From TrEMBL:
<dbReference type="InterPro" id="IPR006094">
    <property type="entry name" value="Oxid_FAD_bind_N"/>
</dbReference>
<dbReference type="InterPro" id="IPR036318">
    <property type="entry name" value="FAD-bd_PCMH-like_sf"/>
</dbReference>
<dbReference type="Pfam" id="PF01565">
    <property type="entry name" value="FAD_binding_4"/>
</dbReference>
<dbReference type="GO" id="GO:0022904">
    <property type="term" value="P:respiratory electron transport chain"/>
</dbReference>
<dbReference type="InterPro" id="IPR051264">
    <property type="entry name" value="FAD-oxidored/transferase_4"/>
</dbReference>
<dbReference type="InterPro" id="IPR016171">
    <property type="entry name" value="Vanillyl_alc_oxidase_C-sub2"/>
</dbReference>
<keyword id="KW-0285">Flavoprotein</keyword>
<dbReference type="InterPro" id="IPR016169">
    <property type="entry name" value="FAD-bd_PCMH_sub2"/>
</dbReference>
<comment type="similarity">
    <text>Belongs to the FAD-binding oxidoreductase/transferase type 4 family.</text>
</comment>
<keyword id="KW-0560">Oxidoreductase</keyword>
<dbReference type="GO" id="GO:0071949">
    <property type="term" value="F:FAD binding"/>
</dbReference>
<dbReference type="Pfam" id="PF02913">
    <property type="entry name" value="FAD-oxidase_C"/>
</dbReference>
<dbReference type="InterPro" id="IPR016164">
    <property type="entry name" value="FAD-linked_Oxase-like_C"/>
</dbReference>
<protein>
    <submittedName>
        <fullName>Unannotated protein</fullName>
    </submittedName>
</protein>
<dbReference type="InterPro" id="IPR004113">
    <property type="entry name" value="FAD-bd_oxidored_4_C"/>
</dbReference>
<dbReference type="GO" id="GO:0016491">
    <property type="term" value="F:oxidoreductase activity"/>
</dbReference>
<keyword id="KW-0274">FAD</keyword>
Length: 462
């Protein structure tokens, strides 16, 4: 919805806007050819898409601010976009329009030298996670957030979604890594708080507010990030388990005291079978298992294994880098393999650890009522209580499965979005996880930052 006091531009106003944008960032960085802009208007899962007026690619924060000023003055919605790997429709326009200006951060790629004393680094919002990881690794550090979309997902996008990923059990979500932020607000002012002071109690936490704001409050242009020390070495095990309860109990018992748990993931048998079928990987265990647990722990020295796996368990363990990567590929390649089945209804939920199996059984039961559902796959970040559920069968715009699964999550005391964000996909269901008072407070924040409701309209808040 566009704010009431803002006019939608006509053709000549649009042409003036495009000319103004070209004068700010250079003609080569204002993309309007539909063949070129198409990929910016459709999301990674191909479930969500909408009209794009232009894609603008500013080179620095000053250009972002200038671009925001002219687009907002023209009354055109603004869509901040990083790697477009978001999975909740937040990184693409609404199908109902109006057409948006996508502000792509992909040229904001500066990487400052690592501050070894503080264990921090300042980087541009358009840096992709894999480049950040390589940069800090060369200086003996690690960035605490890692996910399978690492080659495309940007620092800005992961901040805007408060991304989780495979290391949350060890280092926490993105929020915990962000110690300062630079951002352009909808009124085109720039906030820059990049000193990275560990102690700084000077009013509202604007950095914290921008984390998880999904492009609705402004555009993150840079960030000061906390770094962690990499593991000395690690071992990855794949272990056959009955269910989530069995897997969680096993994690508790096989990780010795004082040993860092680096990851604890689960895949149900159907998901693992799909990965094997699509990739040609062999089934990794000796026998069939209902679920497979992937667990990684820090080792005291290369080649050593800090995992007390009982001998009667069907398990394989990898210690060298190539084998660890081979085991991780079963998990990393799930999303890509799923794409071969069609456009799934995708869920990223969390429930209390002790209720995971009960929730999954109840959800499967309820889904039987929708005749079109033919496949339900469950996998995810087990030790965080975070499951990814993929439901295949119903048409992309058929919301029955969405409503049913998210209601079931709420009935089990869970969150409808554990890490992907609310986006467009879950906006109508926000009330299942947030009270009316909380949503009203969020609306007040949104109105204060973005009075014309031009930043990512329809995302997060219904
Ligand atoms: C294979 C695969 C695996 C994934 N695994 C995980 C996972 O384990 N954990 C997880 O949390 N997510 C995961 N994701 C989802 C996705 O990678 C994350 O949501 C990521 O944070 C998105 O980053 P991006 O740069 O692609 O952002 P985009 O997709 O471009 O944007 C996402 C949202 O952030 C906003 N945004 C982007 N950049 C900015 C900015 N600079 N300032 C303000 N707003 C901005 C957009 O408007 C949009 O609302 C996965 C996705 C894929 C495809």
């Amino acid at each position: 919805m566009i704010g009431q006091d803002v006019e939608v531009p006509d053709a000549s106003a649009t042409s003036r806007l495009l000319t103004d944008l070209a004068s700010l960032v250079g003609e080569a960085h204002v993309l309007t050819d539909p063949d070129v802009t198409a990929s910016y208007g459709i999301d990674w899962s191909r479930r969500f898409s909408g009209p794009v007026l232009a894609v603008v690619r500013p080179a620095d924060t000053a250009q972002v601010a200038a671009v925001v000023a002219v687009v907002v003055a023209a009354g055109v919605p603004v869509l901040p976009q990083g790697g477009n790997t978001g999975l909740v429709g937040g990184s693409v326009p609404s199908p109902e329009g109006p057409a948006v200006v996508v502000i792509s951060t992909r040229r904001l790629t500066h990487l400052d030298p690592v501050d070894d004393l503080a264990g921090q680094v300042t980087v541009g919002a358009g840096v992709v996670l894999a480049d950040l990881q390589r940069h800090v690794s060369a200086a003996g550090w690690e960035y605490g957030v890692d996910l399978a979309a690492r080659d495309s997902a940007t620092v800005g996008g992961t901040i805007a979604t408060n991304a989780g990923g495979i290391r949350v059990c060890c280092h926490g979500m993105t929020r915990r890594q962000v110690v300062g932020i630079e951002a352009v607000l909808p009124d085109s002012s720039v906030i820059s708080h990049l000193a990275g002071l560990p102690k700084d109690n000077t009013g509202y936490d604007l950095t914290g507010l921008m984390v998880g704001s999904e492009g609705t409050l402004g555009i993150v242009t840079g960030a000061r990030l906390r770094l962690v020390r990499p593991a000395i070495a690690s071992a990855v095990a794949l272990i056959g388990v009955r269910d989530a309860a069995d897997a969680l109990a096993l994690v508790r018992s096989i990780v010795p005291r004082g040993v860092r748990l680096l990851a604890g993931e689960i895949l149900d048998a159907a998901t693992l079978r799909l990965v094997c079928d699509v990739t040609g990987f062999p089934w990794p265990l000796a026998d069939h298992a209902d679920h497979v647990l992937l667990v990684e722990t820090e080792s005291p020295a290369p080649g050593e294994i800090a995992l007390d796996i009982p001998l009667d368990r069907d398990a394989v363990v990898a210690v060298d880098a190539a084998d660890r990567a081979r085991f991780w590929a079963y998990r990393d390649r799930v999303s890509e393999c799923l794409s071969t089945l069609g456009v799934p209804h995708r869920f990223d939920i969390s429930v209390p650890l002790e209720r995971i199996d009960e929730f999954v059984a109840e959800m499967r039961n309820r889904l039987v009522s929708i005749a079109e559902v033919h496949t339900v796959l469950v996998f995810g970040h087990l030790v965080d209580g975070n499951l990814h559920i993929e439901v295949l069968g119903p048409d992309a715009d058929d919301e029955r499965a969405d409503a049913l699964v998210l209601r079931c999550v709420a009935d089990h005391g869970g969150s409808i979005s554990a890490e992907h964000g609310v986006g467009r996909a879950k906006a109508a269901y926000l009330g299942l996880s947030r009270s009316e008072a909380e949503i009203a407070a969020m609306r007040a924040v949104k109105a204060a930052f973005d009075p014309h409701a031009l930043f990512n309209p329809g995302v997060l808040l219904p």
